[in-house]
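Key idea: predict the complex, not the pieces.
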Amino acid sequence: MHILIIGAAGMVGRKLTDALVADGGIGAKPIDRLSLVDVIEAPVPAGFSGKVETLAADLSEPGTAERLVAGRPDLIFHLAAIVSGEAEADFDKGYRINLDGTRYLFDAIRLIGDGYCPRVVFTSSIAVFGAPFPATIPDEYFTTPLTSYGTQKAIGELLLSDYSRRGFFDGIAIRLPTICVRPGKPNKAASGFFSNIIREPLNGQEAVLPVAESVRHWFASPRAAVGFLKHAATLSGDAIGPRRAISLPGLSCTVADEIDALRRIAGDNVVARIKRVPDPTIIRIVDGWATAFDAKRASELGFVAEKSFDEIVHAHIEDELGGTFVA
Amino acid sequence: MHILIIGAAGMVGRKLTDALVADGGIGAKPIDRLSLVDVIEAPVPAGFSGKVETLAADLSEPGTAERLVAGRPDLIFHLAAIVSGEAEADFDKGYRINLDGTRYLFDAIRLIGDGYCPRVVFTSSIAVFGAPFPATIPDEYFTTPLTSYGTQKAIGELLLSDYSRRGFFDGIAIRLPTICVRPGKPNKAASGFFSNIIREPLNGQEAVLPVAESVRHWFASPRAAVGFLKHAATLSGDAIGPRRAISLPGLSCTVADEIDALRRIAGDNVVARIKRVPDPTIIRIVDGWATAFDAKRASELGFVAEKSFDEIVHAHIEDELGGTFVA
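Result:
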């Protein structure tokens, strides 16, 4: 099996690559070729016996999409995107990469046209929803994004469903919860604090909490995200049905729940490294975010997320910190 | 006020033009200029004292959109589209006109960029919904189109909301019910029979009914459609709010309701001109269509549709037949 990952150098892309290499296959099928694409060169995974190609390329450049699919990958993960904040700040770049790039990819697959019909797994986002919404968002709730990023993802979902219905490929769009705990450095994303307040204290560093502890949001770990992607790759198109965009399961919890889990696992000393510095801008932004989903369809399709924030903290300590932390 | 109508030569475009000319203004504002655009030359309306330009142009051709908005119309009706059947039969043409053409228009407005912010009224469709759905579709129901046309309209809605949110223009997308009774000749649209069984018998002609009388659907007259467009043009953006795509009110009724109304108004002789010739293809297509909407938001915003099919038949006889029919 030949797998193409677009967005392979990002956090989720790298973890997915490592997981696929460790598994050696997906479903019952061995992987013999990996094509890893991103705007920067993706790392070559260690320990893979098959063929690996890495390519630094911009999907929104004419000709790139055609090159990527010319090798007729059986499975395509399309994870590449300009993130929410940047797509909002740079209108043209967001539409060029997130909308045009996605459409170029879909059209390049379509234009092969000789029965080639790969599985395409597209990462969408809960940003396709926009406030006001109910406390728990059902599967049949409408998408009224309040960002250009959310708009671009919602359009990608629509295209993917139509192209799948037409038989050009066999797609599935999965709306990831907010990934937490994100490894790496604190970033300026408005959602960054959800991860920062766990990651930094476990590293012996202070972290800033800019919102009230009562703030509720929707989470899954990076480990769960990789599990979602692998599961999405193996579902049958018939099982998915014509509605190809799916809200995934996640964990609905408050910042207080996060902190309680951190305290149970790492103790009061670690929790004391969280500093409360309210930020009105972040408070306002986060106030418009979804707090929970009733992800019935995805659960029936076998997608599984964490059931407690303790699991999310444990996954972070195991996967990123070698099982230890700074007490 | 300067009004641009794109799709001005179509049935709704011509009726809208005539209504605007008859009214002389919209809201409290007099109309001093009309720009009428379509792929074929639109007729010049009689009795208009202001300036009229007609232009035969294809919105999907590079440069057309820029030309259309260079005159900075205050109000733009974007009615132009490849219809459902053709967009399904010709994938490239449907996406080129219905998606790219719409985006070119929106971007041409955006790129003027000096505070120019016209009202844009975009005709969407109940084809943004795809079966299965509840008997009555609420305002917050998700859009899962089952045609490329419906997909293109749903994408147009998303773009319009995002561009409006960004302040590039002040848009509203209205999801028209099936327009009935359509004037003119019978056409091959799967929905054609809903109109044919009223229009042809009133003209002394036979008409074919290809489905059961129990089939229920969602209707508004051409007269109501013109009313929707005029009302959409005058609503304040604040009243519409950030969710710029709206399902309009209509009349939910069955084919039997249609026939009963025709009998009450025109008698048994006229009804006897309806011939029952079941068509499995049309039966299957129509089975996937929406039957009713709870168009709460639109009703609150003041959109008004017919309350009975008798009203729809009367509107047809008055507006198209000079008040008479072939008994």
